[in-house]
Amino acid sequence: MNKPTYRRNRVLVTGGAGFLGSHLIDRLLERGDEVLCVDNLFTGDKSNIDHLAGNPRFEFMRHDVCLPLFVEVDAIYNLACPASPIHYQHDPVQTTKTSVHGAINMLGLAKRLKVPIFQASTSEVYGDPSVHPQPESYWGNVNPIGIRSCYDEGKRCAETLFFDYHRQHDLSIKVARIFNTYGPRMNAADGRVVSNFVVQALHGEDITIYGDGSQTRSFCYVDDLIEGFLRLMDIGPEVTGPINIGNPNEFTIRELAEQVLAKIGGKSKLIEEPLPQDDPMQRKPDITKAQDVLGWEPKVQLDEGLDRTIAYFRKVVAG
Ligand code: NAD
Ligand code: UDP
Ligand code: UDP
């Protein structure tokens, strides 16, 4: 395993007011970095970064990454993009623009400053995969014209741009393919499965399983994911990725619902609703590369991660 060889000081995090971005910023500030958070607050929320107000090493800028950005930083984490299906399908054209124009602008910024840049890519680049689990070498099975395409193809094009800037302009790039992640500060209203099930159970409402619940996902706890981001960015520039970061423990959606209900109790029933179009049937990362190259693997398993997430949503629901 390679040892981390460099550390940065003033760090730009786009999408920093969102779920993952706000956790990343906490970790960067904890280790002494300065952070500039750039976010247009489309899906993010100031409440995710309220606790940082008054920290002299933290700054917030409301800005859309589709527009050029001229700032001076030592490293860039590009996370800006709506991430859940209901949000990214709300304005699909804007979603593609955010991934593509956002990547171009942030890559242009990184090129001018000659600083490393990290891209929050996604397991969605594998589409509805025909190879299982998914290694980074798998090229994916993506519908280019479906309702998920704005997100999937936008992220695929962003990866293309990252690798072309790397080859053409010698930019140091870091591409992480993130698998389903959950934890405190997930948006309760963004329709993602963990937040939906937990909030439904806490309200005593029925738990909505789409389809028959036999589709699978592998859920990574947010703290583990952020540790993977930092390791990828801190390791030498020869490591570009793409690299899968996720938890390989795979569950069916029905198993997840049962586990949430067993933990929260109450009168909720499991009900079935139609499966959304192009919903992938299975997803599980092959994390051999992250283990070998970054010495990274997830530590928090679903049982413990769900307890922490439920504790967070209990406070949210209580107001
Ligand atoms: P999120 O919606 O909580 O955060 C995204 C942030 O980006 C929000 O704060 C939003 O306001 C901001 N944003 C959106 N469009 C923008 C724009 N044009 N300009 C500036 N800011 C903009 O989602 P998240 O779960 O924190 O996801 C963060 C990143 O990780 C995204 O790029 C997402 O695609 C990727 N990702 C997340 C997951 C996951 O399971 N959470 C999985 C794969 C990939
Ligand atoms: N860009 C930016 N900040 C910078 C430098 C560039 O936002 O500090 C944007 C710029 O507006 C451009 C994009 O990044 O549209 C790509 O920049 P690049 O230098 O690669 O391309 P060019 O400017 O030659 O089109
Ligand atoms: N899902 C579900 N009930 C819900 C929300 C989601 O059964 O209330 C399913 C969804 O159809 C998908 C899986 O859970 O099969 C994960 O959905 P999510 O939107 O969280 O993530 P993604 O589909 O992007 O992996």
Task: Note down, in words, how this protein is organized.
The protein has helices spanning 19-30, 85-88, 92-113, 149-169, 193-202, 222-234, 253-264, 288-294, 302-318, and strands at residues 10-14, 34-39, 58-62, 75-78, 117-122, 173-178, 181-182, 207-210, 216-218, 220-221, 243-245, 250-252, 270-273. It is an alpha/beta fold. It has a domain at 10-182 and 220-248 and 283-299: NAD(P)-binding Rossmann-like Domain (Rossmann fold, 3-Layer(aba) Sandwich), CATH 3.40.50. Helix 1 links the parallel strand 1 (10-14) and strand 2. Helix 1 (19-30) packs across helix 6 (222-234), helix 3 runs parallel beside helix 4 and helix 7 (253-264) packs across helix 9. The mean pLDDT is 95. The structure holds nicotinamide-adenine-dinucleotide and uridine-5'-diphosphate (UDP) (2 copies). It is found in: Cytoplasm; Golgi apparatus, Golgi stack membrane. InterPro entries: NAD(P)-bd_dom, NAD(P)-bd_dom_sf, UXS-like. One of its GO terms (molecular function) is NAD+ binding. Its cofactor is NAD(+). It is a single-pass type II membrane protein.
Structure keywords:
Rossmann fold; binds nicotinamide-adenine-dinucleotide; binds uridine-5'-diphosphate; about 325 residues; alpha/beta; 13 strands
Task: Provide the fold topology.
Elements: E1 10-14, H1 19-30, E2 34-39, E3 58-62, E4 75-78, H2 85-88, H3 92-113, E5 117-122, H4 149-169, E6 173-178, E7 181-182, H5 193-202, E8 207-210, E9 216-218, E10 220-221, H6 222-234, E11 243-245, E12 250-252, H7 253-264, E13 270-273, H8 288-294, H9 302-318
Nicotinamide-adenine-dinucleotide binds at residues 14-15, 17-21, 39-44, 64-66, 79-83, 98, 102, 120, 122, 178, 180-181, 187.
Family: Belongs to the NAD(P)-dependent epimerase/dehydratase family. UDP-glucuronic acid decarboxylase subfamily.
Membrane topology: Single-pass type II membrane protein
Subcellular location: Cytoplasm; Golgi apparatus, Golgi stack membrane
